User: Fold this.
Amino acid sequence: MPGARKQVGATGTQTVTISFAGFNRAWAAWIGDRLERRGMRVVFQRWDPPVEVPLEETLRDLMLAPGRILVLLSDWYFQLGPRSHDEWNRALREVVAPEPERFAAVCITTSRIPTATTALAAADLTNVGAEEAERRLLARLELPTEPLPGAADDRHGPRYPADTPEVWGGVPRRNTRFTGRESLLNDAYHALQEAGAGAGVVTLHGMSGVGKTQLAAEYVYRFGSEYDVVWWVSAEKRVTYRQKLAELAPALGLSTGAEYGERLRAARDALRRGDPYSRWLLVLDGADEPEHIWDLVPTGPGHVLITSRNPEWSEHNSNLLEVPVYERVESVAFIRRRAPRLTHPEADQLAEALEDLPLLLDQTAGWLNDSDMSVEEYIELLEGGIDQDVVKVSADFPLAFQTAWSILLNKLRETVPESVDLLRLCTFFAPGSVPVRLLKEMPPGVLPEQLTGLMNDPLLWNRAIGQLRQYSVVRLESHESISDEAASSGESLYLHRMVHQIVRKDIPERDGKEFVDVVRRALAAAEPGRPTDTRLWPRYAEITPHLKYADVLQSTDPAVQALVLNCLRYMYLSGEYKTGIKLGERAMAAWKTLLGETHPRVWDLSYHYANLLRAVGDYAGTEAIERAAVDHLRVERGPQDLEHLRAAGGLAADLRGLGRYEEALELSGWILTAYRELLGEQDSRTLNAQNNLAISLRLLGRYTESLELNRRTLEARRQLLRHRHAWTLFSEINYATDLRLLGRYGDAESLQVQSVRVHRIVMGRDNPQTLQAEHSLALCQYRMGEWDKAKELFTRVLERSERVLGEGDPLTMRFAASQCCFAREHGDIDRARDISEHVVGGYTDMLGETHPYTAGTKGNHALILRNVGDREQAHALVEEALADMSRAVGEHHPWTLGCAVNASALRNLVGDPESAAELTEATMARAIEVLGRTHPLTLSSRIAHAADLRGLRERQRADKIETEALGDLEDTLGAQHVHTVSARSRNRPYWDFEPQII
Assistant:
C-alpha cells in the first residue's frame, strides 16, 4: 500500500483501520489516500478469514485493530471463505451491531449483500464521481467535508477506482472468481515499485494452465489505479507483439501517420521518455520466447509485467516470480465459489484429483455444478482413464487433465455440439489469439455444412461462444466497454495453448481435413498480396503465426502457396530472418515432396528462401540454390525468361557476397540489358537490376559509375513508386553511400539525415534497412568530423543490431567494423581491440581467409596493434592484408590502395623508409589514375608520400607534394575540415576499410 504522505490540513491525529477484500485493493488505496491527506493515520487490513474459524471470532479479532474500523462492503468481501448470508447475518448482529462507534462502512457494490449490514450504516459510493464519493466517505466518518487547498491535483495519488486509466487497451475482463495468490500479487507489486528507473520488469512464469494470465489480469485491476496507461499485448510471436505495441501510438495521442514503423517507433519512444505519461504498465502475455522479443521490451519510468512458461527471462533483466499450482486451501475456496453445490470435503477431493491446476479446476467445477454427477463418480471416471489414447502433450501437463478434458468435451457435445466444431476449428490457428473474423468473412459456399450454419446464424454462434466461455475453454478478446452480446460477435477468441494441443490431438481425421482446409482458405483470403508495402505489414504480422498450425505447406491450392511465398517476402523485408528461414526450409522439403523437385513453385520458393539465407551471410549455400535454379530455368524456359532473370539476379548477389565481383558485374550487366529489352527502362524489375549493377560497380571501386546509376535509379523509383517505398529509401542509402565514397561528405550527410528520419517512420527503428540508413549517416558524420554525433549513432546502431539480428549477422559485422575504427581513433583502444578481434574472426569463419572483407578488417586490426605498440605484429598483419587484398581485387582497387597507405606507415615504424616511399609513390600514381587527384584517398596517399620523402630527407620534393596536396584538400574539403587540419599538422593519414552493401 502507499506509504504515509505529508499531512495536509490535519485536524488532529486519528486512526482508521480499513478492512477490505484483496479484490478491492484499489478502493482501499484510494480511500486511504483521501484520509491521509486529511491527517488521518491509516492502517490497512486485508480481510481473508480462515474457513475453520467461526465468523464471530474473526470479527472480534478485527476489533483489536486500532481506531475506527472502516469496512469496504462488496460481494467479494462476503464471499471469502465462502460463507453464506445467514452466517454473516448472525455474526453481524452479534458482534457489529452492538458497537456502532467502532464500525463504519462504505458500499462499493450494487450486488445483494447480507441484510444485517444495515447495522454499519454504509455510505454508498457506487455510481458517483470521485468528489462526491470523497464527500460521502468523510461524512460517514464524521470528518470535515470541505475541499483541501490544492486537492484538484491528484496526479501523484491513486486514481479513483471507478475511473479507468487515461489509456487502457487490450485488458481481459476481470475474473470475478479469482482466488488467492495474495503473496504473489504483493511480491509483484513491490518488485516493480522498488525497481530502479528502466528496470521495472517482472515475469510471472510457470507451467501451462497455472493461471499466469489470470494473475496478470488481477494485478492490472488491483493496481491499475496507480497508472495512467495500461496496455495489454499478446507476445507469443515477435510480429504480433510489434503490431500490438504499434497500436499504442494513436491511443497515446501521438501524432503519427498510418505507417506501421512510425507508430511502433513513436510508441517505444513515448514509453522510454515517459511523455505524455510516465506512469505506464505494459503487460506482455504469453511471451514464451524471450530471445525473440527481449530487445523490444521498453525501458523508461513505467513497469512491464510478463507472463511466460520460460524462466530464461531472468537472463534479460527481469525479476522472476514463479507461479505454482494452487495451494490446497485456494483450490477448495475456488471450487466452492465456482460450484457452490459442492461441500468442503467434496471440493478437497476434487482438488486432489485434479492436482490443484487452476485452469482444470475452472473448467471442471463449472460444469460439475450444472451436472447431476457426483464428485465421487467424476473421480472414478478420472481413475478409469477416459480416452487414454489421448497423447500426453508435455511433461508439464498432468495426466488427469487429459481424462478430465474428455469428460468436459463430452459435456459440450451433449449441450451445444456446434461449440465443439468451433473449438476444433480454432485449433488450426495458432494458440493464443484466434482471428475468427477471418472465418466469418468467408463466402458461405466454401465452408463445410456443419460450419455454414454456425457462421451464418448469430444466435447459434453466440450460443456456441457462450458455452465455451462458461467452461473457461476460451475467452473473448474484446474489451470491457463492450457488452456480452456485442462481444460474442467480436473479432477474436483466446484459446489457451494447453487446451489447443489437447483438442487438436482428439480431432477425427475427416473433420481435421475439412477444418484445416477452411483455415487455409481464410488465411489466403486475408493475405494482402503486397508484402513490399510497409503499411500492410501489421496484417502480415497477424497472419504469419498461423501458417504452421494450418499446415499450409501441405496444400496444393495456388492461393495458399502464394500466401506462403508472400509471407516469406514479408519476413525478408521486415527483418524476420530466423523465422523466415525456418519456414523456407520446411517449405522446400515439403514442396519438393508434394510437387516434385522441378515444379515452378519450387523455383519461386527457392528465390525467397535464398534471399533469407543470403541476409544472414550463407552465400555459399545460396549460390548452390540459385545456380541450380538458373541452370534449370535457362534450359527449360530460355535465357530471356523472367523467372530465369530473377534467379540470375539472386546468383549475382551471391557472387558479390563471395567476393567474386567481376563475375557479379558481368552477370548483373547482362541481366539489366535483358530486362530493358523485355520490360523497358521504367519497370520496377528493371530498376532493381539497375540497382544491383550499381552495387557491383561500387564493390569494384568504380564509384563514379555507381553514383550515376544510383542517381538514375533513385529518380525513377521516386516517380514510379512513392517517396516512402522501401526500395526508394534503399536507393537513397545507395546514392548517399556513393557520394560519401567520392568525398562529397556534406551532400551525402544532407541526403542521409532526411532518409534516416523517413526510414524510422516508415519501417521502424529496428528494421535492418533502417539500421543501414543510420549506419550510413554515422559514417557521414564521422567523415565530416562530427564525432559526438557519430559516436552516439555508431553505438546505438551496433547495440540494436546485436539485439535484433545477432552478433554474427553480416549487417552486425559491418557495423562492428565501423565501431572498432571509431573507437581506435577516439581513445577506447581496449574496446576497439575486442571488437576488431571478433570482426576478423567472424569474417574468417563466414567468408574464408582470402575474402576481401577478411583482408580489409585484418588491415584495420593492424592499426590497432600499431596503437598499442605491437609494431612487428602490426607490420606483419598489414603486409598480409595488402597481399591478400591485391590478390582478391587487384592492385588498382581503392581497397588495395587504402591497405597500401596503411602498410607504408608500418614500414616506416619498423625502419624501412625506402620501401615505404616506394609503396606510397606507386599508390599515389594508381590512386590518381583510378580516383583522380582530389579524391580523399588520393590526397591521403599524396600526404603519406610527402611524409615518406621527408623521412628520406628529400625535403624539396616532399614540400612540393605536400603543398599541392594541402591546397587540393582545402579546395575539396575546406580549410577547417578535420582531414585538412590533420594533414596541415603533419599527422600521417590512415585508411579504414569499410565493408559494403552486397
Observations:
- The CA atoms of residues 575 and 768 lie 6 Å apart.
- The first helix runs from residue 25 to 37.
- The longest strand covers residues 15-20.
- Residues 1-12, 385-399, 479-490 have pLDDT under 50 and may be disordered.
